[in-house]
Amino acid sequence: MPELVVRDNATLPTRCVKCGMADAREALLEDFRYRPLWARLLGRLGAIFDRKASFCFWLCKPCDAKWKYATPASIVTFLLGIAAWLAGARYVLPWVLPFLPDALTWVVGIGYFVAFVPWLYVLDFMVDVLVKEPLVVSVRGIDKNGMVTLHGVHPSVVAELGTGAP
Ligand SMILES: [Zn+2]
Description:
By secondary structure, the chain is an alpha+beta fold. It contains five helices and five strands; from the N terminus they run ββαβαααββα.
């Protein structure tokens, strides 16, 4: 999926932003926030450096339905990922541990529980990339001049605007 670099609030062609179909009928107003990398180090305070942008996207009916389905699908996948970790603790770990030498039992047992936090980060990233982003348009950057990099825009929309990223 190519990226589209476009000015905040730009008027997009009435072509489905996801599949490129001409004469898309569903309009969707979407607000984006982007926090520069360095501002993320400030935690919650970083919010004052958030850059905002909004667009009216055009979508065909099927792509509009998929867009609405993106958030619940992401939540369900995330919960399944947590369930998989719990199932590992309940069913896989007790089965594996007796086969390990004593010294390793503790390392593997404790390591599995400590790995829960990084697992949440990995899971969150995987859900975004594999489940959510294919269904929606997401923001990859907003520079200080208000130029917005959008990810997941159909090539025909990029071609019509003629402002794709190199
Ligand atoms: Zn479409």
